[in-house]
Amino acid sequence: MNYYSDPTANKALGPINREFNRLEKKAKTLRQQFREGRITQVDLDRAQAQFQGIYRHVLTNVLNAQEEE
């Protein structure tokens, strides 16, 4: 987690960091399930709807990291 010397920034960015970490963990779980064949591409497309706004690239970034590994 990032630390800022500004308490107002800490209060503002704390929930964003927690939400980002939660969605990144969910994306990694989806990636693992997809690798194991427990979910299909259709399921991944449906899951993309949960990643909205500033978090919309979290799932695609995690899936692209899969291709690099």
Taken in chain order, the helices and strands follow as HHH
Contiguous low-pLDDT stretches (5 residues minimum) are: none
> Total strand count, please?
0
The overall average pLDDT, rounded, is 88
Largest sheet: none
Computed over alpha carbons, the radius of gyration is 14 Å
Shape verdict: elongated
H/I helix tally: 3
- Our estimate of the beta-strand percent is under 5%
Intertermini distance? 25 Å
Helical percentage? 55-70%
Structural class: mainly alpha
Topology:
Blueprint: H1 7-36, H2 41-47, H3 58-68
Helix pairs in contact: 1-3
State the main characteristics:
single chain; mainly alpha; elongated
Summarize, please.
The protein is mainly alpha-helical and about 70 residues long.
Structural notes for this entry:
- The protein has 69 residues and is an all-alpha fold.
- It has helices at residues 7-36, 41-47, 58-68.
- The protein is elongated, with a radius of gyration of 14 Å.
